[in-house]
Amino acid sequence: MTYDFFKYQGTGNDFVLIDDRNGAFPASDQALIERLCHRRFGVGADGLILLQNYPGPGEEASEESDYDFRMVYFNADGAEGSMCGNGGRCIVRFAHDLGLFETETRFLAVDGEHVAVVSEENISLKMGAVSVIEDRDGLTFLNTGSPHVVRFVDDLESLDVVAEGRSIRYNSLFQPGGTNVNFAQVLDDNTVFVRTYERGVEDETYSCGTGVTAVALVAHQQLTMADPVSIKTIGGNLRVSFTSQAGGGFDTIYLIGPAKRVFAGTISL
Ligand SMILES: N[C@H](CCC[C@H](N)C(=O)O)C(=O)O
């Protein structure tokens, strides 16, 4: 079998994208997906994303669920992950490149509906609402589609993100699922530098979309940083805009930044 694939990256968070509208890709083959994401034995990526038809076989679309496509996201370890913000921006660029919509799209992901707008450079992706920011034994924890710890530090450049991140990722407070871990340093009144340890990749990535979204909301709540928050990651710059609710939650959250096609190829099995 052969499968055409495309490689996309969003601020250095990189993904194998496959047009699976015919449903032929063996999505339950975890070892295969892990191998394709491997940087020595495969294409190399932080995750693999399928673009599927909505409704799928046996599903019925209602008027409210008139989606352009469905996003199915796998982490580099081959397991289906929770929501991926940079992957979401990449699949929107992919769907746009495939001609599935012109400027605005609605699609379905594991955490529900997303809308997104494409401009020349940037993809603005609407994220799910966040109802609560928790304190778990002094660690700030929230779910922005994926689970995230946010910790502010003074010297992010020299921090051992993998060692520190891994110890929090496996902390019993977050089991059985574990958590992604973001370390953040305030650079100025509305800019934060973020480095993320990603579960499922089990390493630091160059950028994490749901992670920087989490950091922006915590920066607003704990440090009164104003909307929109500018984020610097190793892989580039992002912006997060949001509305804060009286009860402490957030909605109309947008993750904004570039997403690009890098190359195309063919996987032969
Ligand atoms: N890189 C992704 C996060 C993937 C989340 C994944 N690591 C998990 O928790 O399953 C992003 O841009 O939001």
UniProtKB/TrEMBL annotation:
Principal localisation: cytoplasm
Protein name per UniProt: Diaminopimelate epimerase
Site (Could be important to modulate the pK values of the two catalytic cysteine residues): H148, E198
Amino-acid biosynthesis as UniProt keyword: yes
Gene Ontology molecular function terms on file: diaminopimelate epimerase activity
Involved pathway(s): Amino-acid biosynthesis; L-lysine biosynthesis via DAP pathway; DL-2,6-diaminopimelate from LL-2,6-diaminopimelate: step 1/1
Source organism (scientific name): Spirosoma flavum
Assembly mode: Homodimer.
Gene3D superfamilies: Diaminopimelate Epimerase, Chain A, domain 1 (3.10.310.10)
Pfam name, any one: DAP_epimerase
InterPro entries from the UniProt entry: DAP_epimerase_DapF (IPR001653)
Family (UniProt): Belongs to the diaminopimelate epimerase family.
Subcellular location: Cytoplasm
Keyword set includes GTP-binding: no
Residues that, per the record, bind substrate: N13, N75, G85, N86, N180, E198, R199, G209, T210
Gene: dapF
Reactions the enzyme catalyzes: (2S,6S)-2,6-diaminopimelate = meso-2,6-diaminopimelate
Function: Catalyzes the stereoinversion of LL-2,6-diaminopimelate (L,L-DAP) to meso-diaminopimelate (meso-DAP), a precursor of L-lysine and an essential component of the bacterial peptidoglycan.
Enzyme Commission number(s) from the entry: 5.1.1.7
Active site feature: C84, C208
Swiss-Prot/TrEMBL keywords: Amino-acid biosynthesis, Cytoplasm, Isomerase, Lysine biosynthesis
